[in-house]
Amino acid sequence: EVQLLESGGDLVQPGGSLRISCAASGFTFSNYAMNWVRQAPGKGLEWVATISGSGISTYNADSLRGRFTISRDNSKNTLYLQMNSLRADDTAVYYCAKTRAFRGVYDAFDIWGQGTMVTVSS
Amino acid sequence: DIQMTQSPSTLSASVGDRVTITCRASQNMSTWLAWYQQRVGKAPRLLIYKASTLETGVPSRFSGSGSGTEFTLTISSLQPDDFATYFCQQYNTYARTFGQGTKVEIK
């Protein structure tokens, strides 16, 4: 069964850092681009970042202004999101999602994890 | 970035109704559009990609159409499981923007 499992969400003080993870199983991880999408409480979905299957290419939301970095370890079938200089408006559920197309980057997200909650508050 | 505008924001309907949700893009994006369903407290679920292709396992009462800047999601006969929030998403550019969502409520 294809599965994504996020972890690492926590309560963090403003200005702090956090790294969240997404463990993948049931598919050949390195063949698929992966994504992070977040959802603030009661709000809509916001795309955060995408990384190609090889990890060579990354794409980030301009609004995050370089504070967040997406990466992956294909030997561990794991996706990461490093978040720095966290602010209250970064409070959200963070989902990882698999890109549908084999070795494609521009495609829909066909598999989603259950999400991990990041709360930024003093 | 391409802006995606969904309408309506909220829709009240009854079981058995035909429901249509619209998504408009701020620029031409061919058919690089997906639709997702999100039930309360759950992760989004892919329904349709490439504007009109039904994802495997999705009931045939869901359909999508459109190209360029205007797209629609139609539910031909609303079922109890379909009361949820629906999002469109463009993937024509690297910034994969979502619409703001349409909540389908019980009338």
Structural summary, described in words:
The complex is a heterodimer of chains A (122) and B (107). Chain A is mostly beta strands and 122 residues long. Chain A has strands at 3-7, 11-12, 18-25, 34-39, 46-51, 58-60, 68-73, 78-83, 92-99, 109-112, 116-120. In chain A, 39% of the residues are buried. With 107 residues, chain B is mainly beta. A 6-stranded mixed sheet of chain B has the order 2-10-9-4-5-6, with no helix packed on it. Chain B is globular. The relative contact order of chain B is 0.34. The interface between A and B is medium-sized, with 22 and 24 residues.
Radius of gyration of chain B: 13 Å
The gross shape of chain A turns out to be globular
The chain pair with the largest interface is: A-B, 22 and 24 residues
Task: Report the average pLDDT across residues of chain B.
Answer: 96
SSE run of chain B? EEEEEEEEEE
Most strands sheet of chain B? 6 strands, mixed
Strand content bin of chain B: over 45%
Order of helix and strand elements from N to C terminus of chain A: EEEEEEEEEEE
Strand line-up in the sheet with most strands of chain B: 2-10-9-4-5-6
- Global geometry of chain B: globular
Helix content of chain B: under 10%
Task: Give the termini separation of chain A.
Answer: 40 Å
Which parts of chain B are unreliable, with pLDDT below 50 for 5 consecutive residues or more? none
Which structural class do the helices and strands of chain B define?
mainly beta
Classification by helices and strands of chain A = mainly beta
Rg of chain A computed from alpha carbons, rounded to a whole number of angstroms: 14 Å
Q: Ranges of chain A with pLDDT <50 over ≥5 residues? A: none
Oligomer: heterodimer
